[in-house]
Specification:
mainly alpha; 12 helices
């Protein structure tokens, strides 16, 4: 469990750095290239974006280790700390100092995460998905994603960024669930051949690419504060649902729901406060544009 938590934190650090670098590159893309494959071609010419992709790869490796050694309901909620990490790294990159209230918000999100994890106490569950459980899960996920993307196409600005951020969160949660299932084939004694011949491995890559595409469009459409909260909170909540329904992981219920809901409220309040910071609200001086 300690190893899974450690690598989950490393994943959050890598993803936070990747978000800062990718948003810096995505904001230079014209609006006319939104939701088009040409968006990726434009970003491929940006060294900042490529560095962000490198951090995404590091995060994926750390996430694989975390999921292979712990429940998905433990690993994915830790990614809530991506929001404060992202803003802290963005402030450092832009030489903008966060006000004291923002630091209190960072502390609130950290304590909220700790309270939520201690209250829910995720445990148990299998290492792979049994039977045909993937069929209804993929169908419902597809409907949810289509609804979010359709709603996003009907709006602009931060609203589109938030909707696409939530869609990307669902994609990343699905990627994590598929990755854990694929790693489970390896642990079940099938060896590397069982891993390489599992459809989950290739579905992981497809889901990850799709989530990355949605995230780039979210970052291009809205400010970081509009994208990151639904991205991190959505990833945590949806991942817990996958962990419980697909892997049979167990959470505390009954009166434990009270501190769990309190923890969620504390994290949400911290997110709102961070949204008021000059950096998150977009009132901080913009970084210099990357040449080319």
């Amino acid at each position: 469990m300690v190893i899974s938590v450690l690598f989950a934190v490393l994943t959050a650090l890598s993803n936070g750095g990747a978000s800062v670098l990718q948003r810096r590159a995505a904001r230079t893309v014209p609006d006319s290239e939104a939701m088009r494959l040409s968006l990726i071609g434009h970003l491929l010419r940006r060294r900042t974006w490529l560095a962000g992709v490198g951090l995404v790869i590091v995060a994926a490796l750390c996430q694989a280790v975390a999921l292979a050694t712990g429940p998905i309901a433990v690993v994915q909620p830790i990614f809530v700390i991506e929001l404060p990490i992202t803003l802290l790294l963005a402030g450092f990159a832009m030489r903008v100092r966060l006000p004291r209230r923002s630091w209190y918000a960072v502390l609130a999100m950290t304590l909220g995460l700790a309270l939520g994890m201690a209250s829910a106490a995720p445990q148990g569950g299998g290492t792979s998905v049994r039977g045909m459980l993937w069929v209804p899960a993929l169908v419902l996920t597809g409907i949810f994603e289509a609804t979010l993307i359709g709603a996003a196409l009907g709006t602009r600005g931060n609203a589109r960024g938030a909707l696409l951020g939530l869609a990307a969160a669902c994609g990343y949660a699905l990627t994590a669930a598929l990755m854990k299932d694929a790693m489970g084939r390896l642990e079940d004694g099938g060896g590397a051949l069982a891993l390489l011949t599992s459809w989950q491995l290739y579905a992981t890559a497809a889901a990850g690419v799709g989530a990355l595409f949605l995230l780039q469009n979210a970052l291009q459409a809205g400010m970081l504060v509009a994208v990151q909260p639904p991205l991190t909170l959505g990833d945590a909540v949806i991942s817990v649902l996958y962990g419980v329904t697909l892997f049979g992981e167990q959470l505390r219920t009954g009166w434990w729901l009270l501190p769990e809901l309190l923890a969620l409220g504390v994290v949400a309040a911290g997110s709102v406060e961070l949204a008021r910071s000059p950096l998150a609200s977009g009132t901080a001086p913009p970084p210099p544009r990357e040449p080319g």
